[in-house]
Amino acid sequence: MDNGKPTFVPALDLEMGFEKIVRIAHARGVCKKQDAVSKLKTEREKSVQGMDVFLRVVTSIPCVETHDANALIQTVGSIEAIAKTSKENILESTDISSEKSQMISRFFRDPKFYLSPNIR
Which Pfam family, any one of them, does this sequence belong to (predicted)? Predict the structure, then answer.
């Protein structure tokens, strides 16, 4: 079997040839479908794991709960985008309180705050 060239399948008569072609096509379709399903499962697992990591990082900010983290990912996006966004943008785009949005903004901008051993 060579890539890019049709496979030669010997057949005794026209009906037998057609039947073999249908079986080959069905087998290829099943293989492609199984491969696609496994890829989708893998991608879904990666996205779930990525979301779990995101939630852990954002909820590690004092006063930020899971609901707040979900609101941030839906409106702002990635952790990098959250770190760059302003307090005002967080207030406009989410239902997070001004105290929490200030805490988020301070967490990403103030090294004395996020490097201190006791984050309050």
Answer: HHH_2
DSSP state of 42: H
Place of tokens 């949005």: 101
* pTM of this structure: 0.54
Q: Are 56 and 88 in contact (CB under 8 A)?
A: no
Q: Are 59 and 65 in contact (CB under 8 A)?
A: yes
In a domain? residue 120: no
For 13, phi then psi, to 5°, come to: -140, 175
Place of tokens 């309050």: 120
Q: What's the rounded Cα separation, in Å, for the pair 25 and 82?
A: 49
Parent domain of 77: 14-114
Q: Which pLDDT tens digit goes with each residue over 11-56?
A: 677 777 778 778 877 877 777 777 777 777 888 777 767 778 888 8
SS3 state of residue 32: helix
User: What single-letter amino acid sits at 102?
Assistant: Q
Structure tokens at 36: 């696609």
